[in-house]
Amino acid sequence: MTDSELRAYMKDTPALGRRALFDEYCNYVYAIVMNKLRSCGTREDIEECVSDAFADIYRALDKGSNMDQDLKSYIGVIAKRRAIDAYRRLAPSTGRAVSIDDDESFKEFAADTDVQKNAEISDRNSILIDKVKQLGEPDSTIIIQQYYYNRTASEIAKAISMTAAAVQKRSVRARSKLRELLLEAGVSL
Amino acid sequence: MRRKNDLFDDVDDETVEKLSQEFPVLTDEEKDRIFAMSERKYNIVSEIVSENDGDVKGVEQYKRPVWHRFAGIAAAIAIIAGGFGGGAALMNSLKKSAPSDTTTSENETVDTTEPTKEDVSKFMGPAKDLTERYAEFENSIVNQKLNVDKDNMLMFKLDQNDASGSVDESYWYKVIDQRYPDMASLQMEYEALYGPVPAPEGMFGGEFTSDQFPAGSVIPYEMSMIRYMTYDGQLYVNGMGGSGNFDYWIDENIDIRKVSDNEFYASRKCMTNIASDTDPQKCDEETLVFHILRNTRSGGWYIDTVERNGVTEYNDPDQVPTTNNGSYESAEELIQSHLNFYNEWECGQVKVDETDSVDDYISFKIQRDSEFTAYYRRLEGYDSLDSLKDTIHNIYTDKGFSELYSININNFDDYDLSSHPIGDFITEDEYTTVIEYNGAVYLKADPTKSCPVFKMLGDINGDQTYENSHVIDAYLLFSANEGPDWARSTDVSFSFTLDSDGSLKIDHYSENYTEEQQKKIFLAKTYDGYKNLERLANYGVFYTDESVAKVPSDDESHPYAVCTEFESAAALRNYLEAYVTPEFIDEQFPDMFEGDYPTFKDIDGRLYGKYDNSQVEIYWGECSLPSDPKTDMDITDVTSDEVIVDFVCHSRITAGSDSRQRMYAEYTGNGNTTYWKVTGFEYPDAKG
User: Fold this and answer.
1) What residues of B are in contact with residue A148 (Cβ under 8 Å)?
2) What are the Cα distances from residue B28, in Å, to A41, A158, B33, B35, B453?
3) Contact check, Cβ <8 Å, A47/B34
4) A107-121, B1-15, B193-207, B366-380 — which is least confidently predicted?
5) Distance (Å, whole) CA A43 – CA A25
6) Other CB atoms within 10 A of residue B345 CB
């Protein structure tokens, strides 16, 4: 569904439109929130934050604002903002001090001045994702779900129709293989 | 490897987007739950906005719904207790906190006569009191919403040898709720509702100390499953979330049905926090039916049972239903078990490679022309062929199993190599698919199988019940080494039948490909064969360092190495001709086999190929199969035997760098592995 179709859908049948928008972008928003809260939030906190972001998105679209803006980037900005708010709230309560380096808003200020570092991070990530994919399925999914999404072996097992024991075993093998692949590509862990 | 999260610590926006697209993680259940939460939040603020003419004031009255990590701790503990003997000591420790059974004699009641239509108003008071306290108990204790000190958190690691290793760490928060200073106060609250009977096992855990389990130490899996424990004299609540699904009473109405002066039923409607199947924007309503008895000695009332939608919640742990002897209640559950088994079976047969740990497999030798090593990979979770057969019998009829796996379960007994030491010579007859060896079950690791297709349940499309059978139509997602195998993902049918033991089993399975889908599958395979040809012709041959030999080449940058993929030029040509016409090879790749320095040539009985490592990298970077034939593969029929196939190819490495590719193919109908052969190939986006 294109942006304009989604916007029209939300206008004509708001309830169904919201669901369609949610289905289209929930994995995107979840990945954004997970990226920020992985280290300090529980799964419940992350789901709360995703739902907060969507409530914000619905309200913003109700107002009809930003009609010309690309929907995905607009949603990305709202999700990121919500995630940063949640991070500020959650990080101290789990004993993590919030340093200036950790704070996304400070990073944003500094973003343009650190182009080289960003490029390095981007290159590293690109290699990482490439190598994870080289592991082949279901190992790629296991690694991403375990390390990016903090899923447990039994949750992954359910998602890919294997037993938890088999997932753990494959995960151990996949990690070892990934380490080799990354070292070959010059990325150290 | 570093700490668990370090791998993805510095993920940039582009990568986040890519991950969300290529590795979506949310299950339907999670989507429904989060969507329902977002709707509630949206609606609350929308209401406030409309009430205040657009001016948002006040605090959102949104109540955080309970989050279900697991269902029914008592049932979970019952299963664990049955499955893991090592936890017996701990289970005894847990039981200490429950009151002894002797107290149940105090509950002597009840003259159970036929229901009457007498005045029931005298029951209204106790019914209201008990249901309100039930709500309070569910919301605070069962749903684990007591006040806790979040800064005072205990973390333990889980013994990964226990259970399934389903969680890695166990978090606990110190309870600072003045209503419940200790375990005894929780217990009293429980008894005030349900009478002096033991609470469900695992709800109120035992006493532990930091000497036994220092913070950060490894604890048994069972301990991580209890809800409340006393640790160094302080009450702690498990951080993994509550397990109840009560939210609030919808209204004040209570229906009373009197049984006797000392016994009645009270029904009251509640809102749950479970998203409705029919409308995920709402949660389900439920009517709870309380069976309430009077304690004839004390005169007080207590809840005997609570029935939700026809299912009784027992307050006596002895009555908690446990697993049902391996038989399956639903056909859908059976499909899931089949897929678990199938995937492990497929995985078990894959050839052994360098990433396998030594514990995974055993090997024997077979004397052929030269010595052949026969590998067997361990099939997890079985200690004997009998245990394997039990699992199979719980899922399949004998016919169903032999149809799906091309092996007769009744022949399993013949396959036992326990008398041979590992590494010993075995005969060809003994080299069989499945064997028992020293208390474990092993599957032959088939050297020809390197890429198992994993199957996952996508959707259930339909469900038909016949006189003696049951058919479920489903959609299965296939996944192979290259990622999602969209071409093969398909509608399937499972037929179930009642087996001789009276339970439902899978008796037949079929994959229902449409003609269009079949065509796409074969054409996708043809495309894959062509991409392999392209790689080999561009020196992207697979070789090992040991195989590099000093054979003269006309091109220094492309020396020859022993090709590890094919035995001879003829074998390679034979492989390629299954996918492309011979004329196409000769016209498009004239140097492949011809000339003084062809790309491939036989030397002393081995196949040598010119190699260039960077070409393998390029091959990996490109797509090999189109991502989704539904959208990325467009077939135009030129004649009845000729097609043009347009692909949109998504690069494996660079997001957004899609490319178009056009394949011309003709129908041959007599190939061994494919029915279509490439006659031409173009890159419409290529310049020059």
Assistant:
1) 7-8, 11, 19, 23
2) 22, 12, 9, 10, 23
3) yes
4) A107-121
5) 19
6) 19
Which of B10, B25, B41 lies nearest to residue A151, judging by beta carbons? B25
d(Cα B39, Cα B45) in Å, to the nearest integer?
Answer: 10
In chain B, where are the structural domains located? 6-51, 73-108+121-242, 248-319, 330-512, 518-682
Closest partner CB to B67 (pick from A44, A144, A163): A44
What residues does each domain of chain A span? Answer: 3-98, 113-184
Nearest residue to A33 (alpha-carbon basis) of A88, A72, A105, A87: A87
For residue B157, with 0-12 CB atoms within 10 Å meaning exposed, 13-18 middle and 19 or more buried, which class applies? middle
Residue B493 CA to residue B251 CA, distance in Å, equals 45
Q: Strand B469-480 to strand B490-498: parallel, antiparallel, or no bridges (unpaired)? A: antiparallel
Q: In sequence order, what are the beta bridge partners of B302?
A: B293
Considering only CB atoms, which chain B residues are within 8 Å of A122? 12, 14-15
**Correct CATH for B518-682 of 3.10.450, 1.10.10, 2.60.40, 1.10.3470:** 3.10.450
A185 at the B interface (CB within 8 A)?
no
Task: Look up tokens 């192979």; give the residue.
Answer: B480
List the helix and strand counts (H, then E) for chain B: 15, 28
Residues B412 and B328: beta-carbon distance below 8 Å: no
Contact B4 A147 (CB under 8 A): yes
Helix (H, G, I), strand (E, B) or coil at A29: helix
- For tokens 């497929």, the residue is B346
Q: How far is B373 from chain A (nearest CA, A)?
A: 22
Q: Are B202 and B226 in contact (CB under 8 A)?
A: yes
Across the interface, which of B8, B20, B42 has its CB nearest the CB of A147?
Answer: B8
CB contact under 8 A, B454 and A177: no
- Classified by CATH at the fold level, domain A113-184 comes out as Arc Repressor Mutant, subunit A (1.10.10)
- Among the residue ranges B29-38, B333-342, B485-494, B617-626, the one predicted with the least confidence is B617-626
Identify whether the C-beta of residue B444 lies closer than 8 Å to the C-beta of residue A128: no
| Per-residue confidence band for A100, with pLDDT thresholds at 50, 70 and 90 | very low
- Residues of chain B with C-beta less than 8 angstroms from the C-beta of A134: 620
Alpha-carbon Rg for chain A in angstroms = 19
- Provide the pLDDT confidence category of residue B162 given band limits of 50, 70 and 90: very low
Contact state of B23 with A39 under an 8 Å Cβ cutoff:
no
Residue in B7, B347, B482 closest to A166 by CB: B347
Query: E strands, B618-686, where?
Result: 633-637, 642-649, 659-667, 676-682
Contact B31 A22 (CB under 8 A): yes
The closest alpha carbon to B444, from B378, B388, B392, B387, belongs to B378
Q: CA B599 to CA B620: how far, in whole Å?
A: 20
- Amino acid (1-letter code) at residue B17: E
* DSSP secondary structure code for residue B580 in this structure: B
User: Of the ranges B30-44, B54-68, B217-231, which one carries the lowest mean pLDDT score?
Assistant: B54-68
Topology of domain A3-98, CATH: Rna Polymerase Sigma Factor; Chain: A (1.10.1740)
d(CA B468, CA B495): 11
- β-strands B560-562, B441-444 pairing: unpaired
Query: SS3 for B394-434, per residue?
Result: HHECHHHHHHHHCCCHHHHHHCECCCCCCCCECCCCCCCCE
Mutate to test the interface with B, among A75, A127, A129, A182 (most CBs of B within 10 A): A129
Question: Is A148 close to B11, i.e. CB distance below 8 A?
Answer: yes
- Residues of A with CB below 8 A from B378's CB? none
> Alpha-carbon distance B91 to B76, whole Å?
13
| Token digits of residue B443 | 């599957």
Which residue of A22, A48, A168 is in closest CB contact with B64?
Answer: A48
